Amino acid sequence: MNCSFKKIRKEIIFAIFVSYTFNLLKMKKTVLLIFVFLSLLTEAQNPETSKYALTTVNDATGMAVLNILDSYLSPLTYSGVGVFYEHSEQKLFSPDNTNLSMRGKIKVMAGITYNPQITAGIMYMGGYYNWGAFYHFRITNDFNVRVGSFIDAQFGFKESTRNENNPYSLDMATNLNLSALATYDIHLKKKVLRLNFDIETPVLGCMFVPQTGISYYELFSLNEFSNAVHFSSLHNKQGLTINTGIEIPFKYSTWKFGIETSGLKYKFNDAVFKLNEYNLIIGWKYNLYRFCGLKNAAPDNFISTYK
Asked: How many whole angstroms separate alpha carbon 212 and alpha carbon 180?
């Protein structure tokens, strides 16, 4: 009887020990899984490992030489000078896909032009905003090409100092443009210079061209817009903008120097309009996180459209 009781007691103690050991191992396994999960979660939230898409900003200003032909105001070509300011922002759609980026750009300009005899002038103020996307082709580590399309909205105001019947003229249009941008990096000892070449042309759109002879007062007071808004394409509107420049990084900033030529011609209702620009550009580039230059470069997990 005593032997049997001792045997049962040993079996009970052994069962309790096995159960305790199993529960302890199971608890350790659970704790280990929780620890691994928390580690992965912490790593995913670590700003040093997460990727961020930088917004690269380009601001530029400069002087422009203008040639304006507006047959609604005068049959002569007016020439003069102006000033402009341009702001653009470019960013990847996703930091995990470095082949597709978006860009928005706004430009404003003001200038004064005169006829060949310098007996009359036309004051010009205008600008545009466009937005679109680029697809990136990385030919080599230093040579990149981007192609894309943009939609824009343009507005311009002209005032003639001599025309008393129709002293004002408006430029209003929207276009679908094709664009291509190429960059090439030149490596020096401590700097990387970047060459830029940008080309853009309108393809399709609509434009505002009033009937020749009708004043803007009659146009707006009588609401005679039936023959003022027209479809535009390459058959009645041609334009080409070419921008070349070089970017030079310094300790705390990156500066751009370049030139731009832009030619636009459109016609309708027996009226011909031309606007030619020759711009000298001085600009600066930075990221909205303020990573720029040599001393304050962006970490590798901050992905720019220029990487």
From this structure: 36
What's this model's pTM, rounded to 2 decimal places? 0.76
Question: Do residues 112 and 98 make contact, with C-beta atoms less than 8 angstroms apart?
Answer: no
Whether the CB-CB separation of 60 and 86 falls below 8 Å is answered with yes
CATH class of the structural domain 52-303: mainly beta
| Number of other residues whose CB lies within 10 A of the CB of residue 25 | 10
User: What average pLDDT is seen over the chain?
Assistant: 82
Domain boundaries, the chain: 1-45, 52-303
Q: Give the Cα separation of 206 and 65 in Å (integer).
A: 27
Neighbours of 88 (CB within 10 A): 17
